[in-house]
What we know:
Low-confidence stretches: 1-20, 350-356
Number of helices: 5
Shape: globular
Strand content: over 45%
Number of strands: 32
Largest sheet: 10 strands, mixed
Mean pLDDT: 84
Distance between the termini: 16 Å
Structural class: mainly beta
Amino acid sequence: MFKNFLFFTIFFFLPFNLKAQNGFRFINQSKKNVRVDFKLINNLIVIPLKINGKELSFILDTGSNKTIVFNISENDTIGLKNLEKVELQGLGKGNSVEALLSQNNSISLGNIQSENETIYVILKDYFDLSSKMGTTIHGIIGHNLLKNFTIKINYIAKKIDFYESKNGEFKKCRKCAVFPIKIIRGKPFLEAKVQIDTLGNSLTDVNLLIDSGGSDALWLFEESKKEIQTPNNFFVDILGEGLSGTIYGNRSRIPSFRLGIFQLEKPTVSFLDSLTTINAKIFKERNGSIGAGILKRFTVWIDYPNKKIMLKRNSNFSEKFNYNMSGLEVVYNGKQLVREEETKTFTDGYNQQIESSNSVSFVTSFSYKFKPSFVIKSVVKNSPAEKVGLLKDDIILNINGIQAHEFTLGKIIEKFQEKDGKKIKITVDRKGQKLKFEFFLKQKV
């Protein structure tokens, strides 16, 4: 199925501060703020960056302490300098992967810029992000871009503001709550409380990575505390892809998540075992991650220099926590040439003078346009889609009477998350043969 959670935080064998960097600063010192429009795709923030003058699309990932580039066919297309080989290690149980390290690069975003940035280039796109998000993604950026500023993320308006950090004080805000954060090796951590036991009301204190690069709501690491154990009602799911392999976990729900004055009911939670998370424990007290599935329910201010975060609930706050109930992982499959039919009507001008003799002509014309195509990348075992016979590599033609090319990838995923028991009618192309299937979404937790 499509990963309800995409995880991009990377863990390195290298020291955190490879080399002192000047960092991002305002170019125009008389204008010390920048507003950036972003795209929100599968809960993830996609921003435009210029690297050595070339504009690229990056995911803004507060959980990443490095700038990472992939999906670049030739390194010299963005003028990377001083290249040397390194090894990277991420979540998952596989081996490390080779990458290139490049120093002294220029990166800019509107009125902010750095001329001395270190970039890691992964030669193979292990994440396959562009097909999973339906748009070209060139990399991820986090701490290096954010560390010198106060930022405001407005998930509803899809805008980020960068401000000069001043005295550790946020502007006055009604119904906001301010919390201290810890910055450990470039990653922000926040203390919260979770209720895991459905039979009691006891709360467990947890230290969570603030991870805008994860589209799920919450991850918890089993055995990081004795109370953190997978509930009885769960199912094994693929949570995402890491540099070191596929990331699996037990997907479930917990009664509540609490953060100061805010309480969220029945969030979906993925529980990861200790072997999978061994590379994530740069902070031994870490118990998991708070992802964009929760962050998007707030307007978020983060003051990196003064180590504070402020939250204000937004119109997403009361939305139910859903996940993909189909069992299908659908990805973008490039563009296909689609024939569109258009019928025009013409009234005979002469006959218009004689009302009883009016005649109407119908002229049908065709045009051809390139439209998006989507394919099934995998089918979860024992899922509703698997039980009716849908297979990997089936090309989707139609969903519930709507041609697939009329959807975005995000809208297809929303269809699979709508509600328990919803009927899905789907037509696919399987090696030139058109096949129709029906199944019902099934909520497991």
